[in-house]
Amino acid sequence: MDLLASLNEQQREAVTTTEGPVLVLAGAGSGKTRVIAHRIAYLIAERGIPPANILAVTFTNKAAEEMRERVESLLRGSKLASAPLISTFHSLCVRILRRDIEALGEGYTRDFTIYDQDDSIRLVKNCLKELGYDEQRLSARSIQSAISHAKNSGLDAEMFAARVEYNDERRAAIARVFRLYDERLRANNALDFDDLLIKTVQLLRRCADIRQHYNAKFRYILVDEYQDTNALQFALVQLLTEQQQNLCVVGDEDQSIYKWRGADITNILNFEKHYKDARIIRLEQNYRSTQNILDAASHVVSHNTERKGKRLWTANPTGEKIRYYQAPDAEMEARFVAATIQEHLVNDPRARIAVLYRTNAQSRLFEEALRRLGIPYQIVGGFSFYERAEVRDIIAYLKLALNPHDSLALQRIINTPPRGIGRQTVDEIERRARDCGGSYWEAISIMTEQGDGRARAIAALKGFQQTITRLVTLAQRAPASEVVKAAIIDTGYELALKAEGTEEADARLANLQELVNAAVEYDAREGGGLREFLDAAALISDADQYRHDARVTLMTMHAAKGLEFPIVFIVGLEDGIFPHARAAADRAELEEERRLCYVAITRAQRILYLTHAMKRRVYGEELSAEPSQFLSELPLELIEDLSRGRSWLSLKRASIALEDRYAPRRYQGKTYDSVDSIAEFFRRRNARTDQTDRAAAVASQPGEFKPGTHVRHPKYGRGLVIKREGTGDSAKIIVNFPGYGQKKLIEKYANLEPA
Ligand code: ATP
Ligand code: MG
């Protein structure tokens, strides 16, 4: 049968064992994600399972989208009555809660608001202020992360407070903020990201009928990237598989890289404990990478102790060596990467290339270098569209259109664009809201009804009230895109930007236009409305920005999980950057960094570059950098050194070579057996090899250098021919030399050699 024809035996077993729990444990590139897609198609096409009974969980929205496309193409031709649900855990929870949250009996209603991380941090800020803490001393960001961590470990505010040691002031403060934060969320009918999971698990635990409903609905469940699920997600899966256990999870413990977000490798162990008769299937053939890349990856990760260990082989060719480059400084590193990318694109304009780094901040130099050469790229992560201030402003208006009691949203835009509602008035609103235990919206109503306060302030508040009320009315009958337009135009937002008249304001206007486009797309979807539009915007993550069709992609190693590229650069391989400084003193963290290294290396299909710089600016100061310890964990014989001059790698090799140099040897009839004479031996032998190389190079020199070929210049080193102009003695040649840029040379006098 077609669906199974393109699978190996173990993959086939994982696809066709549809009944009962299945755990697929396998290394990178072994086809785990492929198994999930095929299994969905198989369930539908071969087992006749109604698509509506199938739930597949992916790690990102983007991965969900791709999975949907894959399944569709596998099922091409068959007409489906319904679609399987393919979504992230968070989207799944939103779906469940939008239907059933009221059954929790905690006062939440189905039109709850979702607070993303940025909202959560702002709410924490408000709480800090209200409790009289100094924000300089307690950072809102770190408190938000402490709260999130607690929630993910199953602690609520009370439990957290109960565990604070009596002299730990910082945690005592966090406990107080935590309590107020939760109160505010509840009062605002809002859930943060963690709550989405927590409330869903609570709901399914408490309400047997709802649990049964979803058990009956999702009869077949599949989970990709299982190694990165956390305890709550595992609990959710358990609750959904209470009645039947047709569950297939796939994962790789060596790729668990989200421990800092609460992911728990023990979920893999727990799986075997909880699902006693689970079938465990191992996939051992890697289809993605060359043997060399796979060897490099396996070698690095074998330094970890906390792993089960597994075999991974490939029928792919050995492939090229791993390419290594040491740059004198970070700028030269970026230039090398950009110039090398240019070479690849000249040779193959359709090449797909990724530059992977540890943190988003590292992208800047690479962007600049690529821009200088005019190479288009996409950047994933960092400042995403939905994080831009103007987009968030309009989203705040939209949230108010659905729920004017959302005080956090209201606070954000009450005087954006400026409408004469000053700091004092806002403080007054806050105070009144606190006094009456209501929302800012209610406080504003009280103030405008009573009409006390300064007349101008009251007039401004009335104007604001009318604006929001109009949006609320519109949202009840108009499609999402209409409300978005109104939020941009009727609020005066557009006018204010136009009045600025700067280039930056124009760019912001263009972003808002893009937001309207997104809403129009949403309106065209089945069941899509303003609510769904806002849900999707709230749940978007960095990795979702990735588009498969771009030639060059810059992204963090985390965001690259699950993806593959023919050519990959891993950059900034320096201690303190990668592995991250935090890992220096903590073995568990170091192991997590090493898994990240394994993930990064295994994204590469054919060619892998590893680069690092000897100097790098940190907070504006030039500091010297040590090569990453992961470099020395690689099998050195698999690496080709592209650095100019002496590199860390060449020294490392020399020192290893030195160790076995003491053995006496014979060369051309002479014995070399002392340290000095051995050095002499190498000088002679190398001189000879150089001569032979040179002779071979001259012999093979063609009449002219064609674009796309490599040349070597006495001063600039190795470079790529971009263009030739003219012929004969006057022929000029344009060559790009990594680190030096493009040079136009007269071919005859340039002393070029083929390289
Ligand atoms: P990761 O651990 O990185 O998520 P994975 O185990 O999910 O990797 P896939 O992405 O499913 O691996 O597969 C890796 C590559 O190998 C893909 O290009 C996929 O199409 C290919 N592949 C997997 N199995 C087969 C097969 N049986 N025949 C041909 N190609 C395959
Ligand atoms: Mg995968």
UniProtKB/TrEMBL annotation:
<keyword id="KW-0547">Nucleotide-binding</keyword>
<dbReference type="GO" id="GO:0033202">
    <property type="term" value="C:DNA helicase complex"/>
</dbReference>
<keyword id="KW-0238">DNA-binding</keyword>
<dbReference type="GO" id="GO:0005524">
    <property type="term" value="F:ATP binding"/>
</dbReference>
<keyword id="KW-0378">Hydrolase</keyword>
<dbReference type="Pfam" id="PF21196">
    <property type="entry name" value="PcrA_UvrD_tudor"/>
</dbReference>
<dbReference type="GO" id="GO:0016887">
    <property type="term" value="F:ATP hydrolysis activity"/>
</dbReference>
<keyword id="KW-0347">Helicase</keyword>
<dbReference type="GO" id="GO:0005829">
    <property type="term" value="C:cytosol"/>
</dbReference>
<feature type="binding site">
    <location>
        <begin position="26"/>
        <end position="33"/>
    </location>
    <ligand>
        <name>ATP</name>
    </ligand>
</feature>
<keyword id="KW-0413">Isomerase</keyword>
<dbReference type="InterPro" id="IPR027417">
    <property type="entry name" value="P-loop_NTPase"/>
</dbReference>
<dbReference type="InterPro" id="IPR000212">
    <property type="entry name" value="DNA_helicase_UvrD/REP"/>
</dbReference>
<dbReference type="InterPro" id="IPR013986">
    <property type="entry name" value="DExx_box_DNA_helicase_dom_sf"/>
</dbReference>
<dbReference type="GO" id="GO:0009314">
    <property type="term" value="P:response to radiation"/>
</dbReference>
<protein>
    <recommendedName>
        <fullName>DNA 3'-5' helicase</fullName>
        <ecNumber>5.6.2.4</ecNumber>
    </recommendedName>
</protein>
<comment type="similarity">
    <text>Belongs to the helicase family. UvrD subfamily.</text>
</comment>
<dbReference type="Pfam" id="PF13361">
    <property type="entry name" value="UvrD_C"/>
</dbReference>
<dbReference type="GO" id="GO:0043138">
    <property type="term" value="F:3'-5' DNA helicase activity"/>
</dbReference>
<dbReference type="Pfam" id="PF00580">
    <property type="entry name" value="UvrD-helicase"/>
</dbReference>
<feature type="domain" description="UvrD-like helicase ATP-binding">
    <location>
        <begin position="5"/>
        <end position="290"/>
    </location>
</feature>
<feature type="domain" description="UvrD-like helicase C-terminal">
    <location>
        <begin position="291"/>
        <end position="562"/>
    </location>
</feature>
<dbReference type="InterPro" id="IPR014016">
    <property type="entry name" value="UvrD-like_ATP-bd"/>
</dbReference>
<dbReference type="GO" id="GO:0003677">
    <property type="term" value="F:DNA binding"/>
</dbReference>
<dbReference type="InterPro" id="IPR014017">
    <property type="entry name" value="DNA_helicase_UvrD-like_C"/>
</dbReference>
<keyword id="KW-0067">ATP-binding</keyword>
<dbReference type="GO" id="GO:0000725">
    <property type="term" value="P:recombinational repair"/>
</dbReference>
